[in-house]
Amino acid sequence: EMAQTLAAGWKSANVWMHSAWVTSKGEKMSKSLGNGLSVPSVLAQKSAWVVRYALGGVQYRAMLEWSDQSLNEAQSAYDRISNFLERANRVIENQPDYAEVQSIDADNLPEDFTKAMNDDINVSGALAAIFTAIRSGNALLDDYAQNQNENQSNGIKSLIRTCVLQVRAMLDTLGLDPYSPQWRSNAQKSQDLGANNGASVEHKVLESLIANQLEQRAIARAAKDFARADAIRDSLTAAGVVIEDCAQGSSWHLS
């Protein structure tokens, strides 16, 4: 691969490493076995971000089992990450620019992330550290939504922004920051992660269904039909959807 790439005049990587096999149903993927997949066929199923996550989600010495399940798990990871960043964006109002994200050095990242990356590029451990940070960030967002003290709210808001910076910097280390130029064109000004950035059809359908339920709940509350409003909220909660009410209306995120 290195010889072919360099002979073609491309410098696609600074470091080359020999990785373990990509397998399918326990067998090595190879042209001779006829179990390989073309890039267009894979991208027809999921976004490039999701495919990259699925391919890079294990340590390079470990076998990578390619399956619909691995793709679906990568899609779930994208949904969790984008959901957190979307929630945070409503609080901090503007995402940090990419230059600020890149300026974060290893000393300012969570210790469990840097330890994992220094442990022979233990990507699984690094991803676990990212989702630990996201859980902490979601907890801060919950605190912010419930806090009525302006000074305390400003302090929590600052912590949320720091958490966003760390999460994005860790993702960027793996080439997965959804706001980086490689995933977002310069012409795209929207801070909404969904547009043109690999949001799945399933995610868009989910947003539409939940928006409809929230609208029905708002109608029920306006009519003082609180039993129906509570029933809608309970059904969404049971499905793993957390509803947050505030003066501006209702918002949601996955639990």
UniProtKB/TrEMBL annotation:
Gene3D superfamilies in the cross-refs: Cysteine-tRNA ligase, C-terminal anti-codon recognition domain, HUPs
One CC-aspect GO term: cytosol
Keyword line: ATP-binding, Cytoplasm, Ligase, Metal-binding, Nucleotide-binding, Zinc
Cysteinyl-tRNA synthetase class Ia DALR domain sequence ranges: 112-185
Pfam family, one: tRNA-synt_1e
Matching SUPFAM superfamilies: Anticodon-binding domain of a subclass of class I aminoacyl-tRNA synthetases, Nucleotidylyl transferase
Cofactor(s) named in the record: Zn(2+)
Transmembrane segments: none
Keyword Ligase: yes
GTP-binding is among the record's keywords: no
GO BP terms, alphabetized: cysteinyl-tRNA aminoacylation
Signal peptide: none
UniProt-recorded Gene Ontology molecular function terms: ATP binding; cysteine-tRNA ligase activity; metal ion binding
Assembly mode: Monomer.
Name of the molecule in the record: Cysteine--tRNA ligase
